[in-house]
């Protein structure tokens, strides 16, 4: 698993250098016709072991669903806020004429801020109140790339299911928020699941796709859209602050 993770992180870092490199840099095994000595066709692809995702999407936590009233909306409003994150999947199993099964691990971060509201509702103070949420998850991922591999349709549907865990903390000005002796920080947990689809970018420039595989070991690159549901409500517990959400996520995915 550590070898696959090292390969993923190394290829992600190398991708930026590959994109920004000048023409002379490509002379190492690549010309206008593609990579030197690299044959076209699936049999010449490098071994595929993992997938890496960069993700961004709307994230409004379901705090008001687990408490009386609407304190979160009253404090932070209803405008869109966004979560940025990453995910790594280790593609351990390939099922012929279906796709891959993989365990995956993901991480994200978002923060909300607003003018602090006085307890009596008479207005707002000059200090900011903030809440930060860091959701993480372990999931099983199924990617059905049969359409791409068997029928040359550049679309890959997928599904994810697993467990999520989030740390959250709030601050009031420069200090940790506190209410009736309770510190404004904690953790939440629950199910995490998602449904999505990926569009294969390789079809837009097959020659560059072959070069990326030969030089960096990137088998496929995609853009994706995903309905993402971290249901972080403590499995329905009224003792856990519900910081889960339900929204669409978009991003870039690489298979290596």
Task: Explain briefly what this protein structure is.
The chain has about 260 residues and is of the alpha+beta class. Helix content is about 15%, strand content about 50%.
Model description:
This protein is α+β, with helices and mostly antiparallel strands and 256 residues long. It has one domain: Beta Barrel (Porin), CATH 2.40.160.20. The protein contains 4 helices and 14 strands. The protein has helices at residues 2-20, 71-76, 146-151, 206-216; strands at 30-31, 34-35, 50-58, 82-90, 93-95, 99-117, 124-143, 155-172, 175-176, 178-179, 182-183, 185-200, 220-231, 247-255. The strands form 3 sheets. It has an 8-stranded antiparallel β-barrel. A two-stranded antiparallel sheet has the order 1-2. A two-stranded antiparallel ribbon has the order 10-11. It is elongated. The chain starts with a helix and ends with a strand. 32% of the residues are buried.
Mean pLDDT: 81
| First-to-last CA distance | 13 Å
* CATH architecture classification: Beta Barrel
Within the CATH hierarchy, at the fold level, what is the topology? Porin
Indicate the radius of gyration in whole angstroms: 22 Å
* Total tally of structural domains: 1
- Count of helices? 4
Beta percentage is over 45%
Largest sheet properties: 8 strands, antiparallel, barrel
The level-1 CATH class? Mainly Beta
Strand line-up of the largest beta sheet: 3-4-6-7-8-12-13-14
Number of strands: 14
Shape verdict: elongated
What is the share of helical residues?
A: 10-25%
Q: Which structural class do you get from the secondary structure elements?
A: alpha+beta
- Uncertain segments of ≥5 residues (pLDDT<50)? 15-43
